[in-house]
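In this supplementary section we document a worked example of the pipeline. Step one takes a protein sequence of length 476 as its only input; no multiple sequence alignment statistics are reported here. Step two produces a three-dimensional model, which step three serialises into structure tokens for compact storage. The input and output of this example are shown verbatim.
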Amino acid sequence: MVHEDCVHVVGAGLAGSEAAWQLAKCGVPVLLHEMRPFAVTPVHKTGFAAELVCSNSFRSDDALHNAVGLLHEEMRRLDSLIMRMGDAHRLPAGGALAVDRDGFAAAVTEALESHPLIAIARGEVSGLPPAEWGDTIIATGPLTTPALADAVRAVTGEGELAFFDAIAPIVHRETVDMGVAWLQSRYDKAGPGGTGADYVNCPMTRDQYEAFVDALIAAPKTEFREFETSTPYFDGCLPIEVMAERGPETLRHGPMKPFGLTDPRAPTVKPYAVVQLRQDNKLGTLFNMVGFQTKLKHGEQARIFRSIPGLEQAEFARLGGLHRNTFLDAPRLLDGVLRLKAAPRLRFAGQITGCEGYVESAAIGLLAGRFAAAERLSELLLPPPPTTAHGALVAHITGGHMEAIDPSAGSTGTRSYQPMNVNFGLFPPLAHAVNHPDGVRLRGTEKTLAKKRALAARALADLEQWIAGGARAAAE
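The serialised model returned by step three reads:
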């Protein structure tokens, strides 16, 4: 049943699903709009909420030394639906949190459909949400439909909202030659649910690697339509052939780095480069090619990727592809609680705000849902402290990332806003230097790790204060 006083959420991806969940948790009824399966996108395959269309990894789950792992932990403490279902459908992936994509999406969908305060409306929202809807969260993600994108452009005055993302191929595990490949996590690191041998590793000699790079550069790529030719890539999701064009050693120091990997059958023979595959479904029948997002034409993908030792007979459940992403100039257009300055009844969440990554999108959906719930309940909810992962991310989105402009230089512009994954560079610096308990000054890697631990400890302590009520007060 649709409640007449509901908050509308447009888009049931990671951000929209999380926003709807948080609203309902606060006692606010929600009407969640999702166009799939009645309208499709170039990359989605199902009508499930929170369908994962690129990697199945939420990246590092290390809350002490990695900013995205810290964001995982903060979301768990905030009762995130996405993290709850991610943990429930975890797959072995070393220190990363990878999930069974179908089981995960089905579980998120069931949780939303069964909640008494959430109703789901199937069908496309083809323009700006009407004024009579009142409070609305737009979480339409990287594949916002042209009609809605045009409506957003009209109300914001934005010119372009788009960039490109690419997705990686998925291989049938049984078609990998394990006489050539071996199982190992980098440095034998065993994450939750893992064994330290969670990745399939395909080694390359120097000659094989150089031939592979040459083939990537020479192969035909997907051609852009005229209006897409000036659309940039998100730097954190570059196609592998674009990385190859940046220099012959780029891949070897990126997704194909051999460091921390040793074939137990030939421990003295060090591979020059390694292609890693990570489990993609719970059954362990599908593995994705880590970092191999691509815009190569499909026939070229199959030919070139089968030149990788161990993948000569590989069968692909999905080949890579390219899709257009959409995001706002959020620091200029959104206020500190994600409302559109030009139309405050509209909030934005997820990748359309310019955050990048599954977990970041869900985290911004979580905050948008909580901000909207507080407003509906006549409460004031301040953003989390910028010392937390959530706070650092929303500060980046809403303007905290921007450098000061020197008026004497005569400049009135701002630094160009770019999509961003959460990282410790977004956090305010520590007030004091990090030293060894005995007072000895730390250096190098030891200093870096100690600093990350201190940033994480500060973040979780400040988050607990925020959760305890320091952010909420009665609105005047």
